[in-house]
Every structure is written in structure tokens, then in C-alpha cells.
Amino acid sequence: MFPLIFEQVSLGLNSQPKLLLDSINVRIEKAGTLLILGPNGAGKSLFLRLAHQLIKPTQGQISWAIPSKLARQQQAMVFQHPILLNRSAYANLEFALKLKNEHTKIEQQHLIEAMLEQMNLQEHAKTSANVLSFGEQQKLALARAMIIKPKVLFLDEPTASLDPSASYQIEQFLSEVATTSTKIIMASHDLNQAKRLADQVLFLHQGKILEHTEAALFFKKPQSKLGKLFLAGELLWKDNRSLL
Amino acid sequence: MSDIVDAFSEAWQLILQLDPAFVEIVLLSLKVSTISVAIATLIGLPLGSALGLYRFPGQQFINIALNTLMGFPPVVVGLLLYLLISRSGPFGVFELLFTPTAMIIAQVILVTPIIAALTRQTIQDTWAHYHEQLRSMGCSATRAIPTLLWDKRATLITAVLAGFGRASGEVGAVMIVGGNIDHVTRVMTTAIALEVSKGDLALALGLGVVLITLSLIINTLGYCLQSSYALKTHSVLNSFR
Ligand SMILES: Nc1ncnc2c1ncn2[C@@H]1O[C@H](COP(=O)(O)OP(=O)(O)O)[C@@H](O)[C@H]1O
Ligand SMILES: [Mg+2]
């Protein structure tokens, strides 16, 4: 599946001249957890959607080492706001497995029960997903993504609107995932979380990649001025175009 | 005054004794409306889903046609259908005029737009909400249809019930194409119209009571469905009370 290569990728709207993503060139390898960092509106979500082929670039090429359709079948994504089906937690996981159509009914049952237990959701198996708490819903969304054992797991700020305890549980689970063969590509603007999880960092600002380096290096000595500001917490909401 | 009291007590007699003529009319009504709504559902759900999910040529036209039909006066539907199926009309050879089949066709024309339009809106909104997640999971729009319909079952059943309400309470169209023939095409609404004009209030009142009860049952069902769904969604909050 890897490397994932972006070649001169741009994304724009017909209606406005400013590009949402601007001439992205990047090569992403299989090893390690990749964190996409950047302030709000930097283009993190759009980057993930492009990589996962939910949207197409207006210019440039995005390629996986295997045919793109095959690639997406082996990927899963968790969005910032969990989107669950109006049925039980169990049935939500079952739905993902049924779409894959790779397991017998009995195998599915074992996989689902094991996954619910791992996520500490077993007592909610029969609960309608709509009545779960927000944190439980996000755990369920993560469970649904992981139950198909994807080769790539995309996460778009999965803990952004969660309380610390739910956030912690998800982070724990993700560090376990990181030890398996699943590659994590995750957008975040939570620096502390990023420090704990990241092996590599891709730093985006206003649709441009400013850095793509080893995490340790980025956090110790960012190469860009904006990277420094971002780490200092001074780049979260403001428009810093003037600094460029 | 005593006329009214007499009419009421006679009406109750008809209902309680299950007067055969009375029961026949009620059963025919239920039969015609149930079949119509079943057919309208079979057309309306897929049609509404397609309109909500796909973009295709002629779509705007169908949307406008459906909206127009939804507000169409039933007598006009009856009239147009009459012209089509009467002896000299293009479908005259099928000899449908003044048969229950003609009434079913009329009701299908009246009910399908309601079900299709509500389905379209529901499916469109739900797809807008779900589509990224479903596409991420490898679920195409077509494959998603049963999932979307199932997830919105409460809303869609309410749409079907609303359709049943329109079908069973309608008088103009079935009067024209059914002809209100005793033992053949006489249903509750047309019977009421006729009996009142004859001055026989008892049968009319009896049928009226049945119609109102039916409407009450339908609305109660719809209400229960919606509120049980709402309650489920809020039970987390309720448990803190
Ligand atoms: N569908 C859209 N239409 C117009 N603008 C969009 C759309 N999606 C995203 N944008 C804009 O693109 C920029 C990057 O968005 P996004 O990738 O969501 O940022 P973030 O880094 O916060 O995830 C933002 O300025 C946002 O307003
Ligand atoms: Mg985002």
C-alpha cells in the first residue's frame, strides 16, 4: 500500500481564487504514526479526505502503491463527530463486517464481542448507538473502524470534543493500534497528545506543508518560524498570514 | 333535536350489531385503501430514494410533478382518471370505470406523491449526514438505500400512515371513478355523501364514527412511533431525573 505520494496536489473552490490546499508534495511511508498538525482551518481534514479518496484534488496526483480502489478498501476513517447508524452498538459493528463480507456469522460474532470488550463497551452491545454518550459513540466509531483490521486508520481529531477520560481511553487504544500493522494517520491540534503518539509530524498551515519530519525533531527544534509559534501555542485561532 | 338523537342511537345500533350492509362498506373501504397504500409504498419508497440519492435528467420535472400532485384537488385527479378509463378513453378497453380497481388507481395517484416526497427528503438529509462515513466503509449510494430506509423507519412509517389517512378519507376521486355503486364500489366516504343527501343520517353518522376512529388510531400510532423514538434518544437525560 505504501508509500502514499502526493505530487503537486492542490485543492480549490471554483468560486474563489485562494487554494484550500496548495501544491502539496509529500511521500508517506509505512512505518510509524503520522500526526497532521496545524491550527484550525489549516487543511488537515481536507488532507485526510484526499488521502482517503473521499474527495478529489483539483490538480496533481495522489497515488498509493496499489490500485486506489483496492487501497481504500483496506482503510478506515474516524471523523471528528461520530456518525453512527440508528441501531445497536453491536449492529453498528456488524454492519462494517457485513460490508466486507469476509467472515461467517459466527466469526463476526466473535470479532464483535472481542472488540466491544476491548473498548469496554460490552454492556452497551444492545444499546442504541444514538443514546450512548459522546465519548462512547466515538469509541464505537473507532471500534467500527478497527474491526475490519484496516492497513491504514485515518483519524480526524477523534478526541477533540471528548472529556479527558474518554480522550485518554481512545489514546490508550491508539497506542495499542500503533504496535500492530495498522498505520495511523491522524489530524490533531492537541500538542500534548501529538507528542505522546507521533512518530512523524506533518505540519500544515493555510493549505501548505511547512514541515514533514520526525516527531522528536519537530517538537525539539521546529524548522519553520510558524512551527515555532505553533508549538508556543500562539498559532491556534489567529490568521497569521502576515507572518509568512 | 330528537332527529339527531335518534340518528345517533341508530348509528350506534349499526356499529354494535355489525349491520351487514354497514360492515360491507367499511371492509371495502379498508380493502381499497390498504391495497392503494401498499402499492403507493412500493412505488414511493424506491422512487423517493432514487430522487434523494441520484442526479439524473428529468429529476426536476419529477420533483415538481410530485409536489404538484401532492396538493392536487382529488376531484380533478378523479376527473382526469375518468377521462382516461371511460369507454371512449385511451384505456377504455380495460373496462375499469366504476370498479374497485379504478378507485385503487385513483388513490395510488393521490398517495404515492406523499410517500415519495417524504422519502426523498428523508433519504436526502440522511445521506448528506452519512455519506462520507458510508463511502469510507465502501458502501455505495445504491447499497446504502436499505440502510437509510431502515434507519429512518419511524419517519417513513409516519409517511405511510399519512398516506393511508389521505386515501381512506378521500371522497371526490373515488366518487367519480368508482361511481358509489351499492355492494360494488360504495365506500365510507361516498356512502356518507350519499346518505346525507338522502337525509338518512344514521348510516352516515355510523360511518363517520368509524372514519374518525380510524384517523384517531392512525395518528396515535404515528405519535407513539415518533415519541418512542424521541424518548429513546433522550433516555440518557431522563435517567438523571
Ligand atoms: N466544503 C468546503 N467549502 C468551502 N471551504 C471549505 C470546505 N471545506 C473546508 N473548507 C475550508 O478549507 C480550509 C481548511 O479546512 P479543514 O481541512 O477542515 O481545516 P482543519 O485543518 O481545521 O481540519 C478552511 O478554511 C475551511 O473553511
Ligand atoms: Mg478539521
Fold blueprint:
The complex is a heterodimer of chains A (244) and B (241).
Chain A: E1 4-13, E2 16-28, E3 34-37, H1 44-51, E4 59-63, H2 68-73, E5 75-78, H3 89-100, H4 105-118, H5 134-146, E6 152-156, H6 164-178, E7 183-188, H7 191-197, E8 200-205, E9 208-214, H8 215-220, H9 225-231
Parallel strand pairs in A: 3-7, 3-8, 5-6, 6-7
Antiparallel strand pairs in A: 1-2, 1-4, 8-9
Helix pairs in contact in A: 3-4, 3-5, 5-6
Chain B: H1 2-16, H2 20-53, H3 59-70, H4 74-85, H5 100-136, H6 141-151, H7 153-169, H8 172-178, H9 188-198, H10 201-238
Helix pairs in contact in B: 1-10, 2-5, 2-7, 3-5, 4-5, 4-8, 5-6, 5-7, 5-8, 7-10, 9-10
The site of magnesium ion (MG) has 4 residues of chain A, from helix 1.
List keywords for this structure.
A: alpha/beta; Rossmann fold; 2 domains; 6-stranded mixed beta sheet; B: 241 residues; mainly alpha; MetI-like fold; 10 helices; globular; binds adenosine-5'-diphosphate; binds magnesium ion
